[in-house]
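User: Sequence recovery, please. Input:
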């Protein structure tokens, strides 16, 4: 089974990290509330990375998916935080050397302290490093950074945490199972994450919606029936206040990526599903609920 392109998954992950950046810091730094002055907010400086790392654009041909964020310490000092989401080759020396290069370029560019964080989203079997060591004869560099691997915590531990970022980590774990588990099992894991989010009760509707959009697309399932079960569950648990119809999901990504053609193709596909349901004798009202198509459009099929 093929999931979303890796580049798209990277961008989905970047978006959810931006939405939950404070929670990520609280997750990674037990004393975050005393370290950081969250009242001053964050400034995302990703565009600043382009002139600093032009080779990244040359190689990938797209925008950089790393995060550069200006935040403040409780001491009043500015602090620049580079969050590098490494997808592959987590333990390779070339990556560690590149990470150190990014670090000193940022120091040279901004002349402020830089905290480097690496989120390793590789398979649990792959060992990762949290230090770059370079030595010649008497010249030596030892560059330590905060490295977190998504399997540093178990599924049970993550579900027990009162932090939305823990669910982002769990989604990363389960996304690696695409093509390895039956979709029915993967869908259950996805529902477990959604259930944990919804029962928390401390997040606003917009934030919940953004996370659910991330979850539904990051843990990619092709089976329409399983996706409909996910949508129906969200609607039921939220008392109908949150609707996760596939049309809304596609429209959102069409706005973001200009995928008007993709929206039209998806709509045609949904119409075909509606036509098959109608042929099976399903009522127009239920078809409309499942597909978000208007009744008059279903009548015309």
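Assistant: Recovered sequence (301 residues):
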């Amino acid at each position: 089974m093929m999931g979303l392109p890796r580049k798209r998954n990277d961008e989905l992950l970047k978006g959810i990290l931006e939405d939950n950046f404070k929670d990520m810091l609280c997750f990674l730094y037990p004393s975050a509330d005393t370290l950081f002055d969250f009242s001053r907010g964050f400034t995302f400086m990703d565009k600043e990375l382009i002139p600093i790392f032009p080779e990244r654009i040359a190689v990938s041909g797209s925008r950089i998916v790393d995060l550069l964020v200006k935040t403040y310490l409780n001491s009043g000092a500015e602090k620049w935080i580079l969050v590098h989401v490494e997808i592959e080759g987590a333990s390779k020396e070339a990556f560690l050397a590149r990470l150190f290069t990014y670090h000193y370029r940022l120091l040279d560019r901004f002349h402020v302290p830089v905290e480097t964080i690496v989120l390793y989203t590789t398979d649990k079997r792959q060992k990762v490093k949290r230090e770059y060591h370079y030595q010649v004869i008497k010249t030596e560099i030892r560059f330590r950074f905060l490295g977190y691997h998504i399997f540093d915590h178990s599924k049970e531990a993550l579900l027990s945490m009162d932090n939305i970022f823990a669910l982002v980590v769990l989604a990363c774990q389960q996304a690696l199972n695409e093509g390895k588990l039956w979709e029915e099992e993967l869908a259950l894991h996805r529902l477990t994450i959604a259930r944990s989010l919804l029962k928390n009760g401390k997040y606003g509707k917009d934030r919940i919606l953004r996370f659910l959009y991330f979850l539904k697309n990051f843990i990619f399932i092709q089976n329409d029936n399983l996706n409909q079960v996910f949508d129906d569950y969200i609607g039921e648990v939220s008392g109908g206040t949150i609707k996760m119809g596939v049309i809304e999901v596609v429209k959102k990504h069409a706005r973001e990526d200009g995928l008007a053609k993709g929206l039209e193709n998806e709509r045609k596909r949904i119409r075909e599903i509606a036509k098959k349901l109608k042929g099976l004798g399903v009522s127009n009202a239920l078809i409309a609920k499942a597909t978000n198509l208007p009744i008059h459009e279903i009548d015309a099929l």
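The CA atoms of residues 94 and 194 lie 37 Å apart.
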